[in-house]
Amino acid sequence: MTWCCRNYISQIKGAHTDSGVQWSVDLTMANRLLKGHDNLTPPKERAISVDPRMLFHLREHIRKSGSMSRHDKRILWLLCTFMWNGSFRIGELLPPTEMGFVERQTLLGKRLIMKSGMVEGRRQEFLVVRLLDPKESRDKSRAMVDVEMFSCPGFHNPLEALERFRERAEFPLDPDLPVFR
């Protein structure tokens, strides 16, 4: 309930600022009421953070799954490595529905860019994931953000996961379609 109110207020404030209308509303009392309401409601179970040990067990579970195809296992593990290494929100990578996607909000093949450059005195390849509408962006005219992911030692290497996925993908990466499909 409280998050609905806060979201609604945020939407109104955003509409004002996007329209160039000054926002000068004092929300002190509203914030106190919402905080009081939060204090009266029992706390929900909090989301737990994923640590490397959890990630390892997740990978083992995916590998041993008898109900998934090799393609599904590799794409799921690719998603896990991207989420872990890039600290993405799920909505920045996956389409909102199984049958459709929002072009500016879903990670498409053309937004995976391999680059190389000098890192600590040596040439290294890295992957750039281009987000067009990241949640953090306040200025929508310059909303694009490039997230760089580097090869790393260990089982959660996103470049290795991408390479293994490409080796046997049922659906090769299409520049104009979602990566995760």
Structural class given helices, strands, pairing?
A: alpha+beta
Strand percentage lies at 5-15%
Q: What's the total count of β strands?
A: 3
Q: Cα distance, first to last residue?
A: 34 Å
Largest sheet: 3 strands, antiparallel
**Total of helices:** 6
Average per-residue pLDDT, rounded, comes to: 85
Encode the helix/strand succession as letters.
Answer: HHHHHEEEH
| Sheet with most strands: strand arrangement | 1-2-3
- Helicity, as a percent range: 40-55%
Unreliable residue runs: none
Shape: globular
Write down the Rg: 21 Å
Structural overview:
A three-stranded antiparallel beta sheet has the order 1-2-3. The chain is an alpha+beta fold. Helix content is 41%, strand content 13%. Helix 3 packs antiparallel against helix 4 and helix 4 packs antiparallel against helix 6. It contains six helices and three strands; from the N terminus they run H-H-H-H-H-E-E-E-H. It is globular, with a radius of gyration of 21 Å.
